[in-house]
Model the fold of this input.
Amino acid sequence: MNRDTIDINDFTVLVEINKSAEDVIDACRFDEPVVAVAFYGSGNVSLSMEWNDQVMQYQGTQGLALSFYADENVNCVHRVSADKPLECIVVATALRKLNELPNEEGEIFSEMLNELVNPSDNYVEGPQFFMSPAMQQIVDSIFANTFTGKTKMMFFRSQITVLLSHFFGQLAESYQQKNKPEETDKLQKAKQILANNLDNPPSLTELAKSIGINSTKLKKDFKAVFGVPVFKYLQNERLATAHDLIRLQNATVQEAAWQVGYDSLSSFSNAFAKKFGYRPSQVK
Done:
């Protein structure tokens, strides 16, 4: 395991890489209540936030940007395996220090992450989305850096600042889209069309035409509002539905694959394993 901790003004940044040839649990807690954003690299581990008798689970974290509030009662658990190494960057600030941040970050956090600044539980999930190519490139560069010593810390500081700027920029774009009721209604309709036609979904062009916008705008606005591209959402819905069918014993693995639109059992099994970390035949 390789873990670097950097202090940037009143932010604490944790950069962690954990590669293991066997299944291991990588768990940590915060010393005090924090507001944080986690950025995940290519490792695609599963994450569980555990507190009291509650658990919030995240599968398929590759490329995910996740904001959250957590206090010292929350256990952050990553499950690392040979084919799913951990690559995670956590940018956190103590809740008590939020108003002391020097460059108006506190004001930005309060405006955009109000539910985290005024938490209602030990753990509160904030906005999450899959990172833009520009954000992903920054994250990849942080994990691939070869600098050492003070130069390494200088590099981390510069990249983390840019990464946070991109995060809030993408978050602002999402809020802007959500504040356009007519446009949001169209996107909700597109989402419902996909959910109702998992076995035979329309093409992107057909979907755009059915809700009255062009395909370029559909791709851009759908990701801005829902955090994932159109057909990534479709895939997630297909696999989640198949998981429920198998878990509830309403279908065999083959039948579940057909019902959600997979003609190839091997393609279905591979996509399922990539998302959930285990094969459909292993569902209990």
